[in-house]
Write a structure and sequence with these properties.
By secondary structure, this protein is mainly β. It is built from 2 helices and 23 strands.
Length: 289
């Protein structure tokens, strides 16, 4: 069965307190209309963020949906089939955002038109790389703002979160309560100024369940590799979490001892940064298939 969820059904924090907007079965296809991270309030070059910008309403996520049969201890399998983009997006600069934010004295807006598979930025034609910035489930307790990443998913801002990829997330509450948004038409690893090309769009995906599977942090998969994702206050801690889980996964997949799996990680895997601009930083360990 296919379900369609409009972009006016959004949340600003992942929480079990939110009522599901749709109940779906494993194997169902869901089409999510998504809002951009600024709720479509910046559409012209003269539109800029002001000092009273409200961070509590950033990165709206469409949903959440309830997946029948999903229980704590299971894993939600999300297969991203298609990402369709609006005809324009926005890149925003703001004082304090990103590693060089202390050099930014005032906000600045660039509108990027999307035409024939290209993004038009300051006279340049850039190839599109559509991706999902925010995708997550409800945490076990409390709420986590959509702008924050974690073991539940959230604002992972990982460029491999795109068409053809499969994301696995640990489930903490009955139904899982999946929501997503914050699409980017183009973004580089790190998202260093604080934004990619922020854009509205539509995401088509299917959901499935893996019952009773051990998983402690998001696991992304494409045709070539697995990506273990971890987020923490400091990059060093995020690296430790991601690498520890990656070595464990190698042990499981290849039957290696821990020592050999750690060696394999050193010679065949790649450590990359997904983003350095959110309240928690996200790294990824790429494990080649």
């Amino acid at each position: 069965m296919e379900h369609h969820i409009k972009r006016d059904q959004v949340i600003y924090a992942m929480s079990n307190s939110h009522e599901a907007v749709k109940r779906v079965q494993p194997g169902d296809r869901i089409v999510f209309e998504t809002e951009d991270c600024f709720s479509h309030k910046i559409t012209l070059p003269e539109h800029r963020l002001s000092s009273d910008f409200d961070y509590s309403i950033v990165n709206p996520a469409t949903g959440p949906i309830w997946v029948e049969g999903a229980e704590p201890g299971d894993v939600l399998v999300i297969r991203i089939e298609k990402i369709e983009l609006d005809t324009q997006g926005v890149v925003e600069l703001f004082p304090g955002w990103g590693p060089l934010g202390d050099k930014v004295t005032e906000s600045h807006t660039e509108i990027v038109s999307i035409q024939k598979g290209k993004g038009h930025f300051c006279g340049l034609e850039l190839p599109l790389r559509p991706m999902i910035g925010v995708i997550g489930v409800a945490p076990a307790e409390g709420e986590i703002a959509c702008g924050i990443p974690g073991t539940h998913g959230g604002n992972l801002d990982t460029i491999q979160m795109t068409e053809g990829a499969t994301l696995r997330l640990p489930i903490y509450v009955p139904g899982g309560k999946l929501a997503l948004g914050d699409l980017h038409a183009i973004m580089g690893d790190g998202e260093v100024c604080g934004t990619g090309v922020e854009i509205r769009g539509e995401v088509t995906l299917t959901v499935e369940l893996e019952k009773g599977r051990r998983l402690i942090t998001p696991l992304l998969e494409n045709k070539d590799a697995y990506f273990v994702l971890a987020s923490a206050q400091a990059l060093e801690e995020a690296t430790r979490i991601a690498l520890d889980e990656a070595v464990t996964l190698i042990c499981e997949k290849r039957g290696m001892t821990w020592e050999r799996a750690y060696m394999f990680a050193s010679i065949a895997c790649d450590l990359h940064i997904s983003q350095v601009v959110n309240p928690l930083k996200t790294v990824k360990v790429r494990i080649p298939k």
